[in-house]
Amino acid sequence: MCLGVPGKIVDVREVDGIRMGTVDFGGITREACLAYAPEAGLDSWVVIHVGFAISVVDEEEARRSYELLAEMGNLEDIDLPQTPEGVRAEDYRPAPRPEAR
Amino acid sequence: MRFIDEYRDDRIARALLAEVGGIVTRPWVLMEVCGGQTHTLIRQGIDQLLPPQVELVHGPGCPVCVTPLALIDEAIAIAKRPDAILCSFGDMLRVPGSSEDLFMARAAGGDVRVVYSPLDALEVARRNPDRTVVFFAVGFETTAPANAMAVRQARQLGIDNFALLVAHVLVPPAILAILVSPGNRVQGFLAPGHVCAVEGWRDYEPIAHDFGVPIVVTGFEPVDLLEGIRMAVTQLEEGRAEVENQYVRAVVREGNAAARAVVHDVFEPCDRAWRGIGVIPNSGLRLRGAYRAHDAELRFPREGEPASESELCMAGEVLRGRVRPIDCPAFGTACTPESPLGAPMVSSEGACAAYFLAGRRREEVPV
Questions:
Q1: ipTM > 0.90?
Q2: Does residue A19 belong to the interface with chain B, where contact is any CB pair within 8 Å?
Q3: Which residue, A82, B75, B120, B122, is the most exposed by fewest CB within 10 angstroms?
Q4: Environment class of residue B152 by beta-carbon count within 10 Å: exposed (0-12), middle (13-18) or buried (19+)?
Q5: CB contact under 8 A, A38 and B198
Q6: Residue B116: closest CA among chain A residues belongs to which residue?
Q7: What is the nearest CA distance from A98 to chain B, expressed in angstroms?
Q8: Cβ contacts of residue B73 below 8 Å, gap of 6+?
Q9: Which residue of B9, B117, B142 is in closest CB contact with A51?
Q10: What is the pTM of this model?
């Protein structure tokens, strides 16, 4: 129920006296109410919940906190699951199937 | 950045898991309040990857699960009226009432429509002026601004045939109820990020202080949750009990001022019964006097008392984090998502559904 999905505003307009807009979720667009994101304009990222922008994504803050995480992810000595020796994912091809008759 | 994929990176997740393992020195019990977070934790198996000292218990943050039986029966009764249309989020349709659910009401000829947003329900009302359109307003603080706007627009545009059946609940009173309940084991909380996006976290500060529990406002992706867990465990190990914010990209302390203003104009706090838990003081919202004309409970007064809950179902214990879904004898046998005894097996935020969909079964539990 409290699902919120980040999307980018690609259009802003007014409908029945409230601020509405179109939000792009990685290629899929939807109508959303922008009344609660008055500071968000075109190209702003917002978190959409049941058709309403409830929060404007702070891109600067997001980038800063993510960089800290990413740094940690790279610096730590991590045991990533390994592909079996001698097998590389890009070399893998499924066995050819017999042609249908 | 797309603000999703980056927070699903398994390298960062593993680094965070390793960090938690490095700081934990003794057992701690954390509760994630929100059912959406429960689903991510269980689906990704994060509860099983954490060091054994860190135990996660699942909270009551599933609005569909805690909506009282009486209100579900009322929604079903409204749906069956020829002069009414019941609009709802899809989650609600399979939730068992006393003797049936909204799907059965629809099969019997009731007009039940699934909508994505309360504004869609308002549009249904505009197009059907001769019938009363009731939107089943279920949800936490996150959803309240949307429902408040729908009612405000109905009044503004003179759409008098639009009403709300309000079942709104609030998170801080529920956290308090858990903390004062006898035998409480929870020592720290992950607070729901989107609830706090709306209301901020000021209400959580006295709770953290008075009860000595760390509360970390946390997002919903695997990396968010692991970082929230790391922050909570760090506080516990250091003997701190503060409100911290993991979800910095979407939440500020004051919340969303524009949304709060409309919510507080339309709704006021009230006592509310939580299914499986009981009445929690000041834990709900109801329409203020100026908007009572849009209150479905006043338009369609309730008839009769609801029948009792299933005797097998342990939903109340699950919602308070006292037992795990797989501890319930009905789990996966008498109770499945297709044929649920209790709401937590239905909802996309219910803990029982999370366990069932992730393939957890009773027989796999080590004794």
A1: yes
A2: no
A3: A82
A4: middle
A5: no
A6: A50
A7: 35
A8: B97, B98, B302, B304, B306
A9: B117
A10: 0.90
